[in-house]
Amino acid sequence: MKKLYSALMTAFNDDGSINEAGTREMIRYNIDVNKVDGLYVGGSTGENFNMSHEQKEQVFKIAIDEAKNDVDLIAQVGSLDLNEAKYLAKFVTDLGYPHISAVTPFYYNYTFEQIKDYYNEIVKDVDNELIIYSIPALTGVSLSLDQFDELFENPKIIGIKYTNADFFLLERVRNRFPDKLILSGFDEMLLPALALGVDGAIGSTYNLNAKRAKAEMNAFDAGDIDKARQLQKDSNDLISALIANDIYPSIKLVFKELGVNAGVTKKPMAQPTPEMIAGAKKIYNDYLKEN
Ligand SMILES: CC(=O)N[C@@H]([C@@H](O)[C@H](O)[C@H](O)CO)[C@@H](O)CC(=O)C(=O)O
Questions:
Q1: pLDDT digits (tens, 9 = 90+) for 62-85
Q2: How confident is the model over 243-271, as pLDDT tens digits?
Q3: How wide is the angle at C-alpha 92 spanned by C-alphas 100 and 269, nearest 5°?
């Protein structure tokens, strides 16, 4: 059974502090309305790389307190500060998170040996399993098939959150590692990822569009490719509109239309403008009202 995870957003107040009530509302909406299988906490969509250390801890605590054991939880603990990543890996493991994940270390053009050491260090002292977060478009770090193989020599490293449009590599990865967990990260490419045998997907737009994505997964599993293609097309109309309106602030604005107080994004992310607010209302009316 393939799993669908929403990449959890963080609700912020205008001053950049965390809006706890709003963050809890989004968690509840994902569990109770979207009926996702899990949440990816502290990822790109959660604006983790905009946050202070204290804010990261706060979000990890809020998410597990609200979600309890209702859905699977993956905590993204990766950081340019390896000591912070190790600390957070232990912190979330102690809180009860069943999985951790870590973005590839970025910015300094690390060698593969340094990247491997980073991952082995993160899992060394924790009793938990790690999913590599590979997102070359944002990190500039592209791991090769052989490099994934080397990382998987550590039995605590169990999978990849594969946010990469390189489908040749995805096919190679799937076939080389049939027992590893491969989760697709580009929502607009869910169907081709399913065709290549991913185990599920994690994404930002599932916060709003989980039902359609689930229906697409089910259609694919039932062999109804025409229906799956139509659902991907409908999703991509929504995703294109969200991207054109600035995706993270727009998802939060559309949440508002759904009665969920998602707060705002944290600066330097864009703050809502009247045009963006009008755009989000239109997205809701055009693609989600009847859903
Ligand atoms: C850069 C980014 O936000 N990528 C999203 C996608 O869900 C993406 O927003 C979507 O496919 C639209 O391009 C996820 O892969 C990120 C994600 O799951 C996370 O770490 O929050």
A1: 999 999 989 999 999 999 999 999
A2: 999 999 999 999 999 999 999 999 999 99
A3: 75
Distance between CA atoms of residues 133 and 118, nearest Å: 13
Please identify which of the residues 56, 86, 116, 161 carries the catalytic annotation. Answer: 161
Ligand 1 site residues, Cβ closer than 6 angstroms: 7, 40, 43-46, 138, 163, 185-188, 202-205, 239, 247
Residue with CA at minimum distance from ligand 1 atom 18:
203
Beta strands (DSSP E) in the chain are 3-7, 38-41, 72-76, 99-103, 129-134, 157-162, 181-184, 200-203
User: Dihedral (C-alpha) 117, 121, 127, 132: value to the nearest 10 degrees?
Assistant: -50
**DSSP track, 132-160:** EEE-HHHH-----HHHHHHHTTSTTEEEE
SS3 128: coil
Ligand 1, residue 185: give the atom nearest the CA. 15
For the whole model, what pTM was predicted? 0.98
Which pairs with CB-CB distance under 8 Å and at least 24 residues apart come from 177-183? 177/148, 177/149, 177/152, 180/152, 181/131, 183/3, 183/5, 183/131, 183/159
Q: Is 27 helix (H, G, I), strand (E, B) or coil?
A: helix
DSSP for residue 187: G
Residue 198, Cβ neighbours under 10 Å: how many? 23
Both tokens of 103, joined, read 């973005």
Most ligand 1 atoms within 8 A of CB, residue of 5, 6, 45, 77 to mutate: 45
Q: How far is CA 162 from CA 12, 59, 83, 291, in A?
A: 27, 23, 25, 28
CA of 185 to the centre of ligand 1 (A): 6
- The one catalytic residue in 133, 162, 248, 284 is 133
- Give the fold, CATH level 3, of 3-225: TIM Barrel (3.20.20)
Atom of ligand 1 nearest to the CA of 189: 11
